[in-house]
Amino acid sequence: REYSGELDQLKTEYSSEREKMVESHKFECNDLQDIMFAMDQEFNELKTEALHDFQSQKDEIKNKNLEEKHALRMQLEGAVEELWRQFQEALRQYNSTTEDRKKHFEELKAKDMKSAQEIEMQMRKLQKIHDNINQQKSKMSCNARDCEEWNRMLKDEKEAILVHFSQLKGQMNKFRENQRARLTTLTVLSTKTINELKKTYDKGERILKLSEMCRKLETEEEKVLPFYASTLSEQEEQEIESVVKQEPDNQLAKVMHEFDHMNNFWKRFNKVMLDKLSLEQARVQLSEENTQLRTLLKQYLDGISVSDEILSHNNPLFIVNNRSNVPVRIHIDPRQKHQVKTVVEAAHIVHNTI
User: In whole angstroms, what is the distance from residue 267 CA to residue 275 CA?
Assistant: First the structure.
């Protein structure tokens, strides 16, 4: 207890002493802040006064210097003008006194330069004439020797040229005859070619007219898909492509490669030829069937009439043991498993009839 009491008393004393020290510290801090504020105010006032004094002294010194500078400038300008006037006067007097001498000197100088140029030009001309004379003499001596040799060479060359000219003239005449013959052959061939081209042109026009006529008879499917799809497998198409890419080894293969762009035409042509063969076969079968039907009709008409001539032949009405002596044949197309009906597209009928 005594310890606790002493401890509490010490704590109380410490707390009271601490509060006093904190209060005194705050008081001293406030005093120091007031002192610093007062010092800052005083320093600012001193600074302002010092700047004011400095500016005023600066302006006074500046104005004084400007006045002195202006006065000195006026004095110097007057002195310079007086000196410039004296200089101009001296220059005028000098020019007036030396003008005649100067003109005479310039004339003599120009004359001397002209005379020197003429002398130099004449000396050059003399030297050039002398050099030309020596050069012409040496050339004359050399040309005399060269001309003799040159004349001899020209004479030999003239003879060789005459021989060559006669040979060239013969060759030219021969070449002219050959060219005339070739031109005649070319004219004949060109005429034949023009005639063949006209025939080909007429044939092409006829093909185009027929194609326009056939286009009107095409079905809607043929108009949308004019070229039939290939029935080859992918492997077969690859083999064909590899063969086509190979270099042709004969003239026919090269020609076939040149006409690869006609493949679509040959597709349509082959399709038309197949359709034509199919129609011809159908026509033959229909003719045979028509002949059979005519025979059956004749047999029927013979069967419903009675005469000696008819009874002498096979008669369908002549039945023995429930059997006729006339064989009945009905033609059935093995490729058709059902009755074939002729179908015409309505769009084609509307387009061509209505």
Answer: 12
